[in-house]
Amino acid sequence: MKTKRILFGVLLSIGLFAASCSSDDNDGETIVPIQGKYNLSQTGTIIDGKEVLIDAPQNQAGCSRDYLDLRLSNAAVIGDYDGSDCALTETTGTYVRSHNDLTLTIGALSSTSDIMNLTNKELKIKNKTTGVITVYTR
């Protein structure tokens, strides 16, 4: 009888532990911080239900890759290398993250994207208006 009571207690504990670990408070939201410097890697869209990505044509051949730098202060800096001398032009604006949305505001222009993937090595966003997917890597 004592063995059955111990077994029941163990099974009850395992059940309660499993139930307490299955809470979906984040509903798919990632907990990786979004702040950091990301190099532009790929762009694309969804065609016939499949993601089609290519190397970002915005990156100037022979230059460092363009980048997006999201800072703790909510400043967003876009770095663009261009021309034969790979001159860097930085444009500063702001960003706001709300759950899995990322809104970038540069001057009077604002765009909101879905965060499709955010890991320690990648940020993949999809523009809500145009459907363009942009992949950045750290």
From TrEMBL:
It comes from the Bacteria. Residues 34-125 form the Lipocalin-like domain. This is Lipocalin-like domain-containing protein. The keyword Kinase does not apply. Residues 1-18 form the signal peptide. Pfam families: Lipocalin_4. It comes from Flavobacterium bizetiae. Keywords: Signal. PROSITE patterns: PROKAR_LIPOPROTEIN. The keyword Signal applies.
